[in-house]
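Narrative of activities, Objective 1.

The group set out to show that a structural description can be obtained from nothing but a protein's sequence at a throughput compatible with the screening campaign. Below is one input-output pair from the validation batch, recorded exactly as produced.
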Amino acid sequence: MKIHRNASLKNFNTFNVDEKAEILFEIDNIKDLSNILSKENKKDEILVLGGGSNILFTKPYKGIIINLKNKGVKIIQEDENSVLVEVSAGENWHDFVLWAVQNGFGGVENLSLIPGNIGAAPIQNIGAYGVELKDIFYSCKGLMLDSFNEFELKKSECKFEYRSSIFKSKLKGKTIITSVQLILTKSKHNFNIDYKDLRDNLSNTKLTVKKISDEIIKIRQSKLPDPKSIGNCGSFFKNPIVNISKYISLLEKYPDIQAYKLNDSNYKISAAWLIDKSGFKEKKEKNVGVYSNQPLVIINYGNASGKELHSFANHVKGTIFNNYEIKLEEEVLII
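Output recorded for this entry:
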């Protein structure tokens, strides 16, 4: 365990924003959590920070930051068709995906190269290329911050929605997730290559979890900047969901609009298309801009502050609303 006071957060967030934390604990052993938190007074000001890939700091954090670094992947149960694995919250998500692929376990291959740690995955209900965490989720374990009591929530209790869960609503700021259990397939994989990029490159190929993972890694690397080189948090905005009447009116005005039918009542509009068509392609203001290969990504070109990044994001949101009367929502947590 390491304790930092008045610590720089520059190396703890992928935007590389240099804000300060009043107190930051790096914790390897979950058993230390209760002891540490019980001795601190600011129990109502606790932020759990994983890989820092889905957060934007706009000011110093006047409270406790918990950076979980607990490690471990273990098989809890398996049969000839599936395997139940438990993964510690501090494990890197992509490292876990590579472990699953190497072992021939299916279900996470479409989620390759998503940044961040395991503990954040249920909060965000991470997703990509037609697959969401909820599709393979079994349960998660953790601690309640008010009582330090342990909990386990099954899939039905997590209230998963598009890029959301109970941890972003009723339990927001009230828990620390310490591990996640997922159900992966060992045989009879139901591969998902519905997205055009995947269909075009894999439709005439004998599919395996490794081939899909490799292809998605290639696609993501071509579209998304490496946070180690350029500060970013991946997709900054959610794809907005509109009802069918709104979609039809948009389609009449913009026949080339990119959208995906969710059900008989709703369509998901491509936020990247909205941003691109609003003139933000490769747009740059001082040290902040939109990534050239993916309009959903806002990047820190240099030493931009969190306030500068947030101001730019709000400018994008305002422009989209003025142009299309659609409110973009951030995927990123703004502090």
